[in-house]
């Protein structure tokens, strides 16, 4: 949900502005007449369910220009706090009605284990409800409905442009190189281009350039819309293009960054979001909010080797509905496994067993020779 505050001469002028910017579906949250430095104006807070193209979070001043504002962020935080409190009450009521004893001992043990491992109460309640409704449903089946799996292979994500997003240091550049090398190994003749759109941070850019040179792949940089247009014009010359996206600064969203870089219009682009289970739950919620775009297609979990609980993998999937596509259990180029089998994920969740490195796994997607 996007919340914006608009200001203008009078209510009608502001409501017209709300309609223009957020569309007819906007909901008015509050209307106030205010006075600042002797000037009277009207202030309207409005919300819209989905982000509209070209829209930036912020506040319109009396002059009409939108700019991020701490008041608006405060309003959003207060709405989130209120919603959190309402949710707590509802969950408390639902939780009181959970009778784990009505499930099989194995299901009870599974649900208790998930909750101890950090899976939110609301997800446990959802799983309980599913198991209670259908006595033949196994816990793993119920779980697979909450945490869908789609292996990070070219066949499962056939779009030519594959981009990697996520916070700084999560493992984007490393994962991009892994994937590019895997595609090259499976299809040695594939024409591959590595693109760094994270040009502020020299280290990642140089690493990509280095691997591109070593592996005879093309290397490009995107600093702004002109570079993005060049890459788009050259797309037909490549079979696969891998893009390293920048981490998003506080208060911004990836959608805005893609627009600023001129990348929002790149056709057939899949964006993967990399996260690590060792981020705090509130941090993961915030990253999901910041990095989710219309082009985001999967979650990749990295640094599993540094995490001690994995419940956030379930929570994030439940909250955003995106499939999990790969698990990364170490810094090495062979430490990642595309999730070709949901069982790998269940072993991680219930046994804390790290996925086998790509070279050890017998039938991992990248190595099976699927065409780029
Ligand atoms: N322990 C561990 N380190 C990782 C993993 N993935 C990446 N790294 C390391 O984390 C650091 C940051 O990775 P990088 O790909 O540059 O992150 P980026 O800033 O998101 O591009 C590097 O030293 C990587 O070797 C992982 O799964 N486990
Ligand atoms: Mg990087």
From TrEMBL:
Residue ranges constituting the SRP54-type proteins GTP-binding domain according to the UniProt record: 159-345
Segments of skewed composition (Gly residues): 55-66
Location of region: Disordered: 52-75
Gene Ontology terms for molecular function: GTP binding
SMART domains cross-referenced by the UniProt entry: SRP54
InterPro entries in alphabetical order: P-loop_NTPase, SRP54_GTPase_dom
Keywords tagged on the record: GTP-binding, Nucleotide-binding
GO term, biological process aspect, one: SRP-dependent cotranslational protein targeting to membrane
Signal sequence, renumbered to the chain: none
SUPFAM superfamilies: P-loop containing nucleoside triphosphate hydrolases
Record protein name field: GTP-binding signal recognition particle SRP54 G-domain-containing protein
The organism of origin for this protein: Alkalidesulfovibrio alkalitolerans DSM 16529
Lineage: Bacteria, Pseudomonadati, Thermodesulfobacteriota, Desulfovibrionia, Desulfovibrionales
């Amino acid at each position: 949900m996007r919340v914006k505050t608009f200001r203008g001469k009078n209510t009608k002028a502001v409501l017209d502005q709300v309609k223009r910017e957020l569309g007819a579906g906007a909901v008015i949250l509050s209307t106030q007449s205010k006075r600042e430095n002797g000037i009277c104006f009207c202030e309207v807070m409005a919300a819209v369910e989905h982000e509209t193209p070209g829209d930036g979070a912020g506040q319109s001043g009396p002059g009409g220009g939108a700019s991020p504002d701490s008041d608006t962020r405060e309003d959003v935080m207060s709405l989130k706090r209120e919603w959190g409190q309402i949710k707590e009450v509802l969950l408390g009521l639902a939780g009181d009605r959970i009778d784990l004893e009505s499930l099989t001992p194995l299901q009870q043990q599974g649900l208790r284990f998930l909750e101890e491992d950090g899976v939110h109460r609301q997800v446990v309640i959802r799983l309980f409800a599913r198991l209670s409704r259908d006595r033949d449903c196994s816990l793993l089946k119920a779980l697979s409905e909450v945490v869908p799996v789609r292996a990070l292979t070219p066949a499962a994500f056939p779009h030519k442009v594959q981009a990697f997003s996520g916070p700084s240091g999560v493992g984007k550049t490393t994962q991009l190189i892994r994937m590019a090398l895997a595609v090259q190994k499976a299809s040695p003749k594939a024409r591959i281009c590595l693109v760094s759109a994270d040009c502020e941070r020299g280290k990642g850019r140089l690493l990509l350039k280095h691997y591109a040179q070593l592996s005879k792949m093309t290397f490009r940089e995107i600093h702004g819309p002109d570079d993005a247009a060049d890459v788009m014009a050259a797309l037909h010359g490549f079979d696969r293009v891998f893009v390293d996206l920048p981490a998003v600064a506080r208060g911004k969203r990836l959608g805005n960054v893609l627009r600023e870089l001129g990348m929002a219009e790149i056709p057939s682009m899949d964006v993967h979001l990399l996260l690590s289970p060792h981020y705090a739950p509130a941090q993961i919620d915030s990253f999901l909010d910041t990095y989710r775009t219309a082009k985001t297609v999967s979650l990749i979990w990295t640094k599993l080797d540094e995490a001690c609980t994995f419940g956030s993998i379930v929570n994030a999937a439940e909250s955003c509905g995106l499939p999990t596509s790969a698990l990364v259990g170490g810094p090495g180029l062979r430490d990642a496994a595309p999730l070709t089998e949901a069982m790998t994920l269940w072993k991680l969740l219930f046994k804390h067993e790290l996925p086998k490195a790509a070279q050890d796994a017998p039938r991992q997607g990248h190595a099976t020779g699927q065409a780029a």
